[in-house]
Structure formats: C-alpha cells, structure tokens
Amino acid sequence: MKLIVNEAGRFVPEKVNGVKQVPFKGVNKFKPRGNKAKPAIRSCADYPSNGNKLVKNLREALMRSGLKDGMTISTHHHLRNGDVITNILFDTIHEMGVKNIRWFPSASFPVHEYLIKYLEDGTIHHIEGSMNGPLGKYTTEGKMKGVGVLRSHGGRYQAVQDGEVHIDIAVIAAPTADNFGNANGVNGKSSSGLIGFSLVDSEYADNVIVVTDNLVSFPCVPWQIQGNNVDYVVKVETLGDASKIVSGTTEVTKSPDRLLIAEYVAQFIDEAGIMKNGFSFQAGSGGTNLAFVLYLKERMKAKGIKARFVRGGSTKYLVQLLEEGLTDYILDGQTFDLEGVRSMRENPNHVNTSPFTSYNFHGKGNFASIVDVAVLGATEVDVNYNANVVSHSDGYLLHGIGGWQNCLYSKCTILAVPSFRDRIPVIIDEVTTLCGPGELIDVIITERGIAINPLRKDLIKAMKNTQLPIKSIRKIRDEVEEICGAPNKPRLNKNKVVAVIKWVDGTLIDSVFQIK
Amino acid sequence: MQTKNLMSFAGKRGNQIRSDCYFEIELTKSGGIDLDIKSKVLSLYGDSIKEQVLEMCNYFGLKNAKILLEDSGALPFILAARFELAVRRLNKNLDKEFLPEFNKNNLYRTSKDKIRRSRLYLPGNEPKFFLNAGLHQPDGIILDLEDSVAHTEKDAAQLLVRNALRKVDFYGSERMVRINQLPRGLEDLKFIVPHNVHVILIPKCESREQVIEVEAEINRIKKEYNISSDIFLMPIIESALGIIRAYEIATASNNVCALTIGLEDYTADIGTQRTLEGKESFFARSMIVNAAKAAGVQAIDTVFSDVGDMEGLRNSVLEARSLGFEGKGCIHPRQIPIVHEGFAPTIDEVDKAKRIVDAFKEAEAKGLGVVSIGSKMVDAPVVKRAIRILELSEGKK
Asked: Which residue numbers of B have CB closer than 8 Å to A's CBs?
C-alpha cells in the first residue's frame, strides 16, 4: 500500500479498496467541480397504481432489488443500540449466499458486534461508516478484508452526492410507514424521533426498501422519508429493542470533575459575550454536554437571555429550554430520549433536520457554520489543537465521527474534555488519529484549565479579566504528564492501513494503522 | 508434604474499578520474580509499570515471587501504595516505606487562623476521588482514615493517604487528615505527620487528655523526622460528654485551631435521631460555638449529607452562620461553591477589614512596626485575615 503525506502532515494511502483518493488539502481547499451523482430515472407506471408496495418479506425485497455479490447496502443508525433489523438483514443476505457486501451504515453500535461473523465469512467485505466498540477492535487488529472508511454525517451525504459511494440497496428501518413507503420516526413502538440520516439513501439509492413494525394506512404523516423514493415496503414484527433505541431518561453526569468542566463551559460562553439574545448553540448527548446546558440555562435565566435556536441531538434538557421559552427552536438531527421524541411529535418548533441541511459540504451553505458555539467532546487533543474522536491513545478505533467534524465549522468550537481519563492522557503532544484540524478548534476546556487557540485573538481579549483558569495548552499537557507519566506510543504496523478518516470534503485526513 | 506458599492480596479488582489496582503476591522458593500484568493501559504504560514493580521488589528485597497485577488505570503513587500493602501483609514487621517523590507543589504551610469555610471529606481508600479534589478549591481537603474506611482496609488507607499527601497536588487547599478514634488513631500518625499534614482531625473526642495524647505523639514524630512546621488539631465532638467538655477540649492545646461536631453519633448518644430541622442538636451546636469562641478558636459545623439538595444546603449554611459557625463540612465537591457563598463576608466585615488593611498600609508607609486602629493594636495574623476577607469579597477563591 503506497502512502503519501497530506497537507496536515499525516500518512494516507493513494488508493483505498482499489479506488484512487485525494489527500487532505487544507480546510475548504478541495472543491470538486462537475455534476452530482444521478439517481436512475424511474416511472410511476412501473409501480402498483394502488400504491401498495408491500412485499412478503425482506428476502423477497432484496431479491427483487437484484441483490448480488459486491453490492453496497446502506442502513441508518436511528435505532441505535436497539437495532436488530440490520443484524436480521445480514442474516438474510448470508442465507441468500451473497458475498462481499460493502456495508454503508450512518453509524454502528455495540449491538452490531453480531456482524463480525459475516465479516469473517466474507458476507461483508468492509464497512464504510463508523466502527465502534467490538467492530473497531476487529478492524484495528487488521481482520477486516477491505479497508474501513470513516466519515462524518455530512461526509456521508457528500460521498453519495459526488459519486464516491453508489448505494445499490438502501434498507430503511422506519418506526412508522404506509404501504406506499412514506415513513417517519416519531410514531410507533420503535419510535426513534427522526430518521433523517437515511434521507440521502432514499434519494440516491438504486433500490429503497422501507422496513416497518408499524404499518399505517396511507398517508403516513409526517413523511420524513417520501414514498415516492421507495421501491418496496416490508412489514416485520419488530425493528428492535425500544428501551435501547432511545433511553427513557438521560441523566446528567454526577462526576464532580465533569460538572466542573460543564460549569466552566457555561461561564466561558457567558463571559466571552457569546451568550446574548438571539444566539445559538449545539449540544450533544454526553454527560458533560447535558450538564453544560443546565448551567447555561441558569445564566440565561438570570440575565433574561433567549436563544434563537439550539441544535440537538435533543434530550429532555433541550426540550425544557424550548418549553420554558428560552429558545425559539430546536433543530434536531437525532433524538436521545423519550421526552425528545414526544416534543418532536407535538411541538412544531422542534424541527427535524437531516445531514443535508445541517452538515453537507456540497450543500449551498450549511447550518453548522451559522451556529454561534458548539460544545463537543474528543478522545485526544494535542498541543496544536488538533483533535481525535475515533480512536484512543492505544490506537484502537472506538467511536465514529458522527457530526463532530461538521460541527467544528461553528463560530466558536469548544472541546469539553477531561485532561486525562483514569491514567490515559487526553491532552497530549500529537494525536494518535487526526480527525479535526486545530485551526477549527477554538477552546479546550478541561478540569485543570482552559486553553484558547492563539488564532482566536478575539476570544483571548474577551477573556482577559476572567477568573476562569486560562492556561496555555502546553501547560495543561505538562500537568497531565506530571500526574500520569509520559505514555508510550502504540505499537503500530505502519505498513498496513486498516481504516481511513475522511475530511468533510471527501479527502483523506488520516489513516488508522493495524495494532501489532 | 509440601507447605503452602505464603500469599497476600491488596487493592481492588473488577470491571467497575477505576484508577486503582489489585496485587496478588505469592512468595516462591525459586525462579525469581514472575510478573503477570493485566492493565487497561498496558500499551501506554506497560513498560513503566513493569519497571516500577521490579524496582519495588528490589527495594523490599523480594527475590522469588509470583506477582499478579490487575490494573484499572492506577497512577504510580497508587500502584506503590497497593504493592507496599501486599508486601506488608506478608511481613507485619516490615520497617521500610516505599515513598513516592514529594510533589514540590505540596510544600506550602498553613496558619492557625486560616479561613476554613469548607472542608471536603474524601474516603481514604478511594484514590480516584483524590486526584482532582483540589481543583474544586475547598479551603481544606480531609483524607479520611476513620468512618469511610472499612475495618479490613485501615492498613490500605494509611499507605494510600501517606502517598497522596506526598504526591497529589492539593492546589493550595489546607491538607487535613481524619485519624481513627483513639487509641487506634495514634497508630495512624506516623503515616501522616512526616508528610506535611496541616490539620489533624480527632474524631469522637471526649477529653483534653485525648488532645494532649495526640499532640504528644505528633511531637515525638516531629522530633524524629526533624519537622518544625506547625500541625494543628481539630477535635470533632460527637458525644454528650464531649459537648459538656467542649471548652476544656478547645483549650487543651495551643495547636487546636477549631472545634467541630459530628451529629450522627451525637444524636445516637443522646438517644434521638437527626431531623432536618435540627432542634435536637441546637444545644450541642451552640455549645460548640460558645466553647470555641471562648477559647479563641474557630467553630466549624458538621456536614450536610444530602448531596442532591442544594437549596437545603444553602439554608443549612445560612443557619450555621447565624449560629456563629465559620465553616461547614462537604461530602461532594459541588457543595463547595454554595458553602463559600453562604460564608461570604458581610458588608460590615468587609468594612472592618478595609480599615485594618488601610491602617496596615499606613503604618507600613510610615515605617511603623506596630499597626493600630485608634488606641487598639492590631496583630499580624489579624491583618492577614483582613487581607483574605477583602480577597474573598472581591471574588477571589
């Protein structure tokens, strides 16, 4: 495998799974020309005039879709760790004797450890999406036949639109659907809130199969997925384990250190002058993120400040902001708890969004760069503000990119991270895997201190008189090293790339190497 | 018949454990050191962990042993405490200590009249709570050897607390240890006195003799280690008898810096139960305040034990302050800012402090050695305290 050095100074392969790649050129430097990918022309005359696209089962739908060796099959991750339908899908493909599938999920979860046997026996050739937990371990140990490709949520849309990934068959698990294929995630026993991550699949795939466990009479409204893009509908008993699709409740962290970080985040946003009437912010689902929303809320109330919109993943804490009139809208990409699902169903100001509107590099603008402040996590941050979100310092892939890379485009990107976890340093010399370039990362908030990127002279000036513990990132790194000791680098086989990390524009920003 | 090899265990194991480790040592007759390391951080720190364990084997003269280490991300000072414990459990008469290097940030001193609004209790055998406690900026951090430590792990906590005193950065918080009830507590002192402890809390204190006994042992150790810095005492009064003798306890030694109270045991002792309202302990708490003030030391209130109830805590702090208390115990770091808020200086206190500091500056400018307001002389510690009050009123932590 021939490696070249990209603009970020990282080694990336020239080709991945036989396809020539573009190395990372710098932020906003690579802008391909030409036309977007084109879905095939279809005619309604070829579909049942009574609108009923129901077929007997998944096997029949796959057969009619012309399933064969080497195809690309996509799924979404809105069922999260409760997803059983993806596992059943690959059982079926396996029974049909089909091999070498490229699996193109919007993310994977620990429940998909089940699929390792299909990676072993050649049913699945490789994964392009995220490789979490057990799948990450499997991949990093060099056991997958092809090279894994990790993309952001926006990057997935981009890859389909610029023709890098052509989806042969999209299988869309839909908590509610009609027999025409209109579908949504807000109703039904397996409700997940929304299913926007499969929007691109429904628009571009050659064949689209909607699978539901809650079939309703036409019309299924709202139609987050339009039946006009759907070829077949399959009714099953159950899509998955509802208790693991969204959690009943999401709880704020009890860890004193995480709470301290969350409080620092809220104080920073306030004192830096970002928290003002009509502002916007992004909040994720981690324990620290939930807590920062609570602290920010106290400050907003105290100063009588109202946000224009908040971007989720939503939880009950965001819903409370909306219902107490502290924000006009929630723009939601995915929903993490039952309160979020309820609010999305009932409140027109809780708006579902897709990676197209939120994040897509090939959109005519995207929401992410409008947001005033995004608070995100990371597994590692280095002294040049570069950050990693997919692997740990031991070199193992552990998480997907999610919307993380896309959110870095916000006006102020804050990474709220502990300076070390157990003995594993988070603030280090050089990231194990580069996912986000330092020029887009503005502030690092840890329990030991807050580092502001020297590029952000405006923020440094705004925080000149703060009582917050502002420190250089190198000082924080030194403190961590004093506590934990200097770690060894993971022992990697630099000749074998097991996965690549795409930047939001489709270029290669870094490689993941096999663990020795 | 073959005799069984001597074995010992120390530390904690299992999936739930974080920042700690478990050692098993089996003494063997031959074969050298057979080390089996299972660690969450093997790829990052495997080499240094191995080096550390072999260094400790060498230090304690362990030549032939099978050693199992299950490490859940323990820092070196924790590994050292657990290993030493396993060695001690094999050899009760061990006279060597494996001491981590003293953190140079931990060399600071304290003073008798230091402000003690908050003191954070940390269980002495739970190292994961130690690491960042100082970041929450309590006035004092108490490493506890008493009630929060299981009877079977008292020896473990002694070593862990000793190593923490040396290695963990307290970020300027006063360094306190609660020893066990006497006489056992006297045994704890040699593990803490040589390591720059600032204040020793004496639990279930009932007489001036107990204070004197603790102080005598401290002085003996200080002499042995050639330590000159002050170590202050904070008796915790937790019984009816103790309350009655509060004044004589407070005046038993010039090193008593504060009196405090433990209400769980006190209410049990007088045959009642703790209520939220606290009528049952009103007398005892007022006694503490009165005795402390009469003796010229600080009166510090008990802990507020519902960590979820911040409003209750706020009220409890205001009530304690109105009774005359100057500080409150904390069992969760999130309680600290609320306690500090509750004990923030009043306008009158700030005014008085301003007058003292102004007088001090004036005296300094005139080159006078003595500071006075009107005809009243002001001692140096009073000036220091006034400066601190002004700092607090300006929001400095």
From this structure: 18-19, 40-48, 72-76, 131-132, 135-136, 169, 332-334, 395-397
Provide the residue ranges of all domains of chain B, joining segments of one domain with +: 7-90, 104-342, 347-393
Here the tokens at position B59 are 């230090």
Residue B380 has pLDDT above 90, yes or no: no
Indicate if the alpha-carbon torsion angle B301, B306, B307, B310 is positive or negative: negative
Residues in chain A within 8 Å Cβ distance of B396: 467
CA–CA separation, A80 and A53 (whole Å): 27
Q: List b or e across B217-239, with b for residues whose CB sees 16 or more CB atoms inside 10 angstroms.
A: bbeebbeeeebeeebbbbbbbbb
Number of other CB atoms surrounding residue B166 within 10 Å: 18
| Maximum CA extent, chain B | 89
Helix, strand, coil percentages, rounded to 5, for chain B: 45, 20, 35
For residue B102, the 8-state DSSP code is P
Q: What is the ipTM of this complex?
A: 0.88
Taking the C-alpha atoms of residue B198 and residue B294, their distance in angstroms, rounded to an integer, is 23
pLDDT tens digits for range B183-213: 999 999 999 999 999 999 999 999 999 999 9
The token pair at B151 is 């009877």
How would DSSP label each residue in A442-474? -EEEETTEEEE-TT-HHHHHHTTT--S-B--HH
Model pLDDT, residue A285: 66
Which region among A270-279, A483-492, B154-163, B242-251 has the lowest average model confidence (pLDDT)?
A483-492
Option in A256, A257, A424 nearest B44 (CB): A424
Rg (CA), chain B: 24
Cis peptide leading into B312, omega within 30 of 0?
A: no
Given the candidates 3.40.50.150, 3.40.1190.20, 3.40.1080.10, 3.40.1190.10, the CATH classification of the domain at A53-245 is: 3.40.1080.10
CA distance A29 to chain B (A): 36
Nearest CA in chain A to B169: A483
Beta bridge partners of A72: A102
In whole angstroms, what is the distance from residue A399 CA to residue A77 CA? 13
pLDDT at B385: 79
CA distance B212 to B205: 11
| Residue B146 near residue B178 (C-beta atoms within 8 A) | yes
Residues B141, B121: Cα–Cα separation, whole Å: 6
State how far the Cα of B347 lies from the Cα of B318, in Å rounded to an integer.
16
pLDDT of the residue at A245: 84
As a whole number of angstroms, the distance between CA B244 and CA B258 comes to: 16
**Segments making up each domain of chain A, as ranges:** 53-245, 256-488
Residue A50 near chain B (CB below 8 Å): no
Task: Write the CATH number of the domain with boundaries B104-342.
Answer: 3.20.20.60
Q: What is the pLDDT of residues B253-290, one digit of tens each?
A: 999 999 999 999 999 999 999 888 889 999 999 999 99
Per residue in A350-381, pLDDT (tens digit) is: 998 888 888 899 999 989 999 999 999 999 99
Tell me which fold the domain A256-488 belongs to: Glutaconate Coenzyme A-transferase (3.40.1080)
Question: Is the CB of residue B12 less than 8 Å from the CB of residue B19?
Answer: no
